Structures are given as structure tokens and as C-alpha cells.
Structure to design on (662 residues):
């Protein structure tokens, strides 16, 4: 297992040395890195983040969907700071940790299936370095946790299927809780589906003479009870996240059927990926064809054919049939529209998109079967020729790495890494932009560079610097926020016209950031709207609206009035001196979970056209506006009581419970 870990680790290091921050691309850069940093910074300052004041006029920060309670998030940022002095490597560390864990997990699974250690190493490097895992994870970190959890969960399922073990059962419960907290429902549900299929295929194909209803319940109850116990520990967080989804503009309803069925992984693409014949015709995930996401090494397919050729003498026919059935199921779900239409009518699943994502499971079962084939092959070699098996293993590793290092098609400096990462960390006008809200302006020909260019502080980048952006990047964005932010969305160009300037001004939008290639006709529109040219450099133009409302202000500020404020994760602290009683406005959208305190005493929080305010008496006062999710706090308190009672009863009756479980 140590050899496996080192091989996977050094392979990923080679990729990183060749292409620094390889996994910091697309959504990982645009959305995930700011969330990682925001969570870490909040905890360092003594808060668990439940709200984000930095985008969309303030938006709830769902505890499950945002990974705010998932430990590897914090470990990754900490290691990035410790090793490199900044947060930029956090995503790469996070992905690498999970991929390495996945390599170890499949090694343990294959060992449990009684494969030789060399075959286990073969499976480990194939699972960790196949193109779906590496290419997919460079844009979507959600793939890498499944790489880690899928083999481990199936390992525990298999152990518990053979014989119940309290230790293994509790480990599976703990692992499933972590997988919940990682926060990506789509892969979690898909994994659970394949766990159920795995257990029941084992039941049918390895116990053909004992297909009783009693046996069915006996073999399924461990998984069912384990899921229930896992849910017990995180139920309030799940409810909170479900509520966030129900309030979401884009996730509260099922996808349109054509969007749901978009981008199936058709057979021609599958075979061209397997044979690497599409090397000249690369296209990315955003196109109708997804290439380079099915390559699992040249050796895997011949090994699978060899497995079935020798299967009659292998003595493991039934378990191989289980994985073959799972492989066929996974591929059919990713490739064939009729099956996908059936899934569309399952309410929980019709919020998901892009069926090629489920191809990850196809690859997993290809890896399992090819490892069986490798095991038979190296077992047939005489001892003095075992070095041939080692050579095949080494060659296989080189062909996998070659895709990422010497491929002539993909330059492996993902397009957003070349956008000057240094200003991403430090910018000459960063301190100026702290006062007032920012909007990222773009035109139809240049919006993509604006969305993801860190130099422009677009979207979620503001979160990294404590700046405030008018909109952002959040899949669980509530409908109310979407309406108040003029229906601006990360996937569309932002082209405010003169009629929208008063609304933007009211909501404190002071800074208009745009790329240097913005057409002059559009710049003239901004100038005619009484905006002042503030800053120009090699990549951006910044206009200032000096008439924009402040982010915190007194309604009728007099000569003697003054205030200062600072923003934390879940609240805003204001010190104000005013000459008479008057409203103090917080330029964020009103939320039912806001509570306010004046000099320690709770006061009423009001809404004026959606803007939040409190009435402050005359004189000098300390005011705090706090996001306090009462329902979540109360449910967490109740849950803690239930868990304590459950744990006490469970521990007292553990012998009886273990007997019933087994």
C-alpha cells in the first residue's frame, strides 16, 4: 500500500511541477477557491460561516452545500498557507488528498477481493490517474471526493456482506457522514444507488440457491440502518440545505427535460476515448462532445478481454459477473437516452444535469475488471518472468502520465491560470475598492474573460479580499436575491443600461469594472450616466459612481454624525454617533434571520424596499447586525440532545444491537 501511495503522490507532483496549480481551473477557481478561503478565514476569526455579505446583496451560506463543516476544506487551506504562504494551492491540495485516498481505497478493496498486490497497484494507479478523474477534477473538485469515498464504501459494503463487524459498520457510518458533509448531492446519491446494486447483485449472483426474502432484508439492512444513523447526526444540516435548494432560483425546480438529457456519453465517444483515437480532435466539456475523459490506459481493455478468456479457470466467475453487471449499468445510464428519461421522472434526480458525469462509475468498474485480468496474467507468468508484470505496470503508468505531460493537444495551462495570479493575491487598488459595491461589466464578445479573470475582481473573487460584489456565483441563490440583483447571472454578460443605474446606485454599486476591450460606445453610456473614469491598466478599466449609496449610512446624516463599521462572517459591527434618533441603513437585502443589538440590547430590524435598517437613538452607540438562523440553531440543539440519548441507549444495549444487526 505504501508503494501505491507513493506512486500516486509522485505522479500528481510530476503533473503539478509541469503545470503549476493544475487543478485551479474553471469552477474550482471561480467558485470553490473563494468558498474555501471564506470558510477558513471565518473559522480562524472564531465563526462558523452561515452568511456571506460579499455578494448578491448578502446571501445565506448553506452549511452543507458550502462545505463549511467538511474538515478537508480547512486542512487544504492550512497546508497551502503553511507550504506556499498563500491560499492559491488549496484546491490542488484538496484534490490530491482525495485522489491519493482513492488510490489507497481501491487498493484495499482489491486486496479484500484477494487480488495480488501487483494487481492492486495496477488498479490503484489506473483509478487515480485516469483522464476522467484528472481532467474532471481540474474543473470540478466534486469529482475527487467520490474518487476517495466510492472504493472505501464498496469495501465496507463487501466486508459487511460477508460478515457483520461492529467496527466496520461504525467506520462506514463515519465515512458516509463525511461524504454528506462534502456537500455534492449528485455523486452521493449515485454512489448510494451503486452500493445498493452492488449488495443485491452479490446476493443474487453469489447465492443463487438461497434467494429468500429473509436473506434480502438481512443483507440490505446494514446499509439501510447505516444510512439512517448517518442521517441522524447531520439531519439539521440536510434540512437547512434542502430549504436553501427550495428557495433557490435555479435549483428549486426540475430541469427542462432537454437540459436534463444534455451531453450523453455516446458509444463512439466512449471507444475513441478508450483507444485514445480522439487525440487530434480534442473538445472540452462545454461542447457537444467530451473527449479525454474516458482514457484509462491502453492496457485495460486487453486485460478485460483476457479476464473473460481465462474466466473459466479463475475460480472467481460470480464476483466478476457482479462487476460486469455494474459496468454495463453505469455505462447504460451515462450513454442511453431511454434510461435517462426514466430517471427524469424521479423527482430527486431531475435536478441533476450532464449524464456524462456518471461515466465515472463506468471507469471505476473497468478498473476493477482490468485489475482482475492483470491478476490472472501475472499469476500465469512463471516466477522468473514476474518482472514482465512489473514492466507492464511501469509502461501503463507512463501511458497515463503521458496524457497530461506530453499530449500535443491540450496545453495544460488551463486558460484562467495565465490571467496574472499575482494581482489575484495582491492588487494596487484593492484597499480603494473596499468602500462601496462592485459590479463586473462585460459585453457579449468579452464576458468570459471578465467572469473568471482575477484581475477584475469579478464575481466571487471579491470574497477573497473582503470586497463587496453586486452579484456572484452561487447555485443556491435565492429567488429574492436574483430579482433584486436585476436577474444578473454568472453565465450571461452584464450590460446595465441607463435605466438600471438608479437601482445600482441605490444598492451601493460604486465601482464598474470592465475589460480593456470594452467598446467605446458602451463606455460613452457610462460616462453619460455621470460615472467618472477612475483607473486604467493593461487589462481593465474602472469607473466610479460617486453618487452611489454607502454600504452603511444614516438616513439624514448631520454635521455631527459619524460612523465606522467592519464586516465579519455572520455580522456587521457599527460604531455610530448621531445628533438625533434616526434609521441606520445596512445596504444589504433584508433577511428574516437578521437580528440586531444596540449597546447589547436587541432591537427591531426593519425593511425599506428590501434594504435592512434599525432605528438608532441619539448619541454614541454600538450596533450589531447578526445573521442568526434560529431554526438551524434550535434543530442543532435538539439534535444534540437526540444524539446523546441515542448514543447512551445504543452503548447500553450494544451487544443486543450487534446481535440483531448480524
Amino acid at each position: 500500500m505504501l508503494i501505491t501511495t507513493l506512486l500516486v503522490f509522485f505522479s500528481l507532483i510530476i503533473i503539478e511541477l509541469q503545470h503549476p496549480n493544475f487543478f485551479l481551473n474553471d469552477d474550482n477557481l471561480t467558485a470553490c477557491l473563494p468558498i474555501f478561503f471564506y470558510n477558513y478565514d471565518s473559522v480562524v476569526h472564531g465563526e462558523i460561516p452561515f452568511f456571506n455579505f460579499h455578494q448578491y446583496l448578502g446571501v445565506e451560506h448553506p452549511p452543507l452545500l458550502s462545505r463549511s463543516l467538511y474538515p478537508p476544506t480547512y486542512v487544504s487551506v492550512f497546508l497551502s498557507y503553511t507550504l506556499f504562504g498563500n491560499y492559491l494551492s488549496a484546491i490542488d491540495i484538496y484534490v490530491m488528498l482525495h485522489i491519493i485516498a482513492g488510490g489507497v481505497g481501491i487498493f484495499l478493496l482489491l486486496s479484500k477481493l484477494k487480488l495480488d498486490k501487483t494487481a492492486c497497484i495496477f488498479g490503484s494507479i489506473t483509478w487515480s490517474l485516469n483522464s476522467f478523474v484528472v481532467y474532471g477534477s481540474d474543473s470540478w473538485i466534486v469529482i475527487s471526493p467520490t474518487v476517495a469515498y466510492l472504493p472505501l464504501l464498496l469495501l465496507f459494503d463487501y466486508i459487511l456482506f460477508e460478515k457483520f463487524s461492529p467496527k466496520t459498520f461504525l467506520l462506514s457510518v463515519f465515512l458516509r457522514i463525511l461524504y454528506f458533509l462534502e456537500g455534492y448531492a449528485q455523486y452521493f446519491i449515485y454512489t448510494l444507488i451503486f452500493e445498493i446494486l452492488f449488495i443485491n447483485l452479490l446476493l443474487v449472483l453469489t447465492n443463487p440457491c438461497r434467494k429468500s426474502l429473509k436473506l434480502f432484508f438481512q443483507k440490505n439492512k446494514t446499509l439501510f440502518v447505516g444510512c439512517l444513523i448517518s442521517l441522524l447526526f447531520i439531519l439539521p444540516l440536510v434540512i437547512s440545505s434542502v430549504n436553501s435548494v427550495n428557495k433557490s432560483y435555479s435549483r428549486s425546480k426540475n430541469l427542462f427535460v432537454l437540459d436534463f438529457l444534455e451531453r450523453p456519453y455516446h458509444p463512439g465517444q466512449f471507444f475513441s476515448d478508450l483507444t485514445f483515437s480522439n487525440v487530434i480532435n480534442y473538445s472540452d466539456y462545454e461542447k457537444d462532445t467530451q473527449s479525454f475523459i474516458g482514457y484509462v490506459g491502453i492496457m485495460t481493455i486487453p486485460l478485460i478481454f483476457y479476464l473473460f478468456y481465462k474466466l473459466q479457470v479463475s475460480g472467481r466467475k460470480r464476483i466478476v459477473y457482479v462487476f460486469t453487471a455494474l459496468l454495463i449499468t453505469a455505462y447504460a445510464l451515462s450513454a442511453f437516452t431511454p434510461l435517462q428519461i426514466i430517471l427524469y421522472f424521479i423527482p430527486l434526480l431531475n435536478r441533476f444535469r450532464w449524464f456524462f458525469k456518471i461515466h465515472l462509475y463506468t471507469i471505476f468498474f473497468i478498473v476493477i475488471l482490468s485489475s482482475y485480468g492483470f491478476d490472472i496474467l501475472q499469476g500465469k507468468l512463471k516466477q522468473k518472468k514476474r518482472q514482465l508484470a512489473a514492466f507492464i505496470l511501469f509502461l501503463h503508468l507512463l501511458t497515463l502520465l503521458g496524457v497530461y505531460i506530453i499530449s500535443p493537444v491540450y496545453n495544460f495551462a488551463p486558460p484562467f491560470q495565465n490571467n496574472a495570479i499575482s494581482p489575484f493575491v495582491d492588487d494596487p487598488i484593492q484597499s480603494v475598492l473596499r468602500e462601496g459595491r462592485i459590479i463586473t461589466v462585460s459585453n457579449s464578445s468579452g464576458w468570459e474573460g471578465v467572469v473568471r479573470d482575477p484581475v477584475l475582481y469579478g464575481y466571487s473573487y471579491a470574497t477573497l479580499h473582503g470586497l463587496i460584489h453586486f452579484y456572484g456565483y452561487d447555485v443556491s441563490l435565492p429567488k429574492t436575491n436574483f430579482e433584486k440583483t436585476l436577474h444578473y447571472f454568472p453565465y450571461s454578460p452584464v450590460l446595465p443600461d441607463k435605466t438600471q443605474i438608479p437601482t445600482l446606485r441605490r444598492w451601493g454599486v460604486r465601482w464598474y469594472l470592465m475589460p480593456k476591450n470594452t467598446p467605446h460606445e458602451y463606455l460613452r453610456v457610462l460616462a453619460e450616466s455621470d460615472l467618472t473614469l477612475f483607473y486604467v491598466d493593461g487589462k481593465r478599466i474602472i469607473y466610479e459612481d460617486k453618487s452611489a449609496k454607502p454600504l452603511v449610512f444614516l438616513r439624514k446624516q448631520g454635521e455631527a454624525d459619524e460612523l465606522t463599521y467592519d464586516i465579519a462572517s455572520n455580522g456587521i459591527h457599527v460604531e455610530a454617533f448621531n445628533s438625533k434618533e434616526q434609521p441606520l441603513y445596512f445596504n444589504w437585502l433584508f433577511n428574516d434571520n437578521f437580528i440586531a443589538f444596540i449597546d447589547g440590547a436587541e432591537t427591531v430590524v426593519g425593511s425599506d424596499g428590501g434594504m435592512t435598517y434599525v432605528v438608532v437613538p441619539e448619541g454614541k452607540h454600538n450596533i450589531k447586525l447578526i445573521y442568526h438562523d434560529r431554526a438551524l440553531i434550535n434543530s442543532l440543539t435538539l439534535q444534540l440532545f437526540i444524539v446523546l440519548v441515542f448514543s447512551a441507549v445504543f452503548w447500553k444495549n450494544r451487544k443486543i444491537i450487534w446481535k440483531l444487526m448480524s
Notes: The chain has a mean pLDDT of 81. The radius of gyration is 28 Å. The chain is about 55% helix and 10% strand. The longest strand covers residues 619-627.
